[in-house]
Amino acid sequence: MNYHNGFVRRALVGQVFSHFNYLSWRSIFVVEALILGIVVVCTYLVFRSMLFGTLNERRFSAFLLAAPAFLPHLAYMGGEMDNFLYMALLAGAFCLMRLRSNTGLLAVTLFSALGLVLHEGFLLMFYPLVLVLIIELIHQRRLKPAAVGIHLAVIASCFLSILHFGKMKGLEAEWVSRAQARTDMPIERTVFVALHNSLGEQVHFALTHYTISLVARVALTLLMCIPYEVVLWRLLISVIEGRGYSIGLQRTVCCLFLVPLLLIPLGHDAMRWIAALCINISLYMLFLYQTDNRHGEGSGGMRALLANWNAAPAGMATFLYLSVLGPWGLAGNRLFANLANLLAR
User: What is the pTM of this model?
Assistant: First the structure.
């Protein structure tokens, strides 16, 4: 997908690679591997102080970054847009929390707009974290409400403009045919169908994919990851309660983190949206710890939380459990389908 026939949503990456007349599956695999490598390097650069900090900090960051919902998920979704969306989020959130000013707000506005151009689903997948971080800075009186209002207006305008002007022109079969002519990799028609559908058609299209077997695999995956889910959620609640928010604001923050689940009836990758929720929570805690530790604001609370988590048997037990579970976990319910296919041979 590219812009050769006018603006189309989700086509930015395709436009960049449109200068190559032919892309073999081997070259696509190399590109995906390089992109994942960039994701890992960027994550290292942003959180290197924790990755090479005290033993407690290393354990904490390892739990959040290496959990099944994080980098393994991004590796598994190499052929999707998630890696690009994650990098847009990481860059914007880093600028916002590093500068903690209207300049940082401008930067996160630009990176969020880039994420929306990459994939309009960024609004529900990763933008909730941006809102939560803005709430934190407003609570610290670092941002002016007027500037935040302008930011929200720009993001809303960008999102609505992309939906209105980014409609796919022509038939879905024509796009698939043109795409297949440029590669020896089989073309997945789903993205073209999704772009061609109306909202009602897309909801119906997505829900038809939630067969009983798929729902069962998702449920089994979530059951396997209950220790991770419980520890992550309890950490989040402890952090939110320690920020000094009002009860209403605490509930608002929790609801914002649950926003990616609204994508479940719109797209059939249920575990993808659940993983986005967990990625947002993990980044939230990492950015808050780094910011508090750097500026000395509330660092005692975050440090106490970190010490308590490392001292509790549940913390290390959960980390060991995730190590045994492996990289699939929360990100890969298809593992069960692959095992079933293997056993059936």
Answer: 0.89
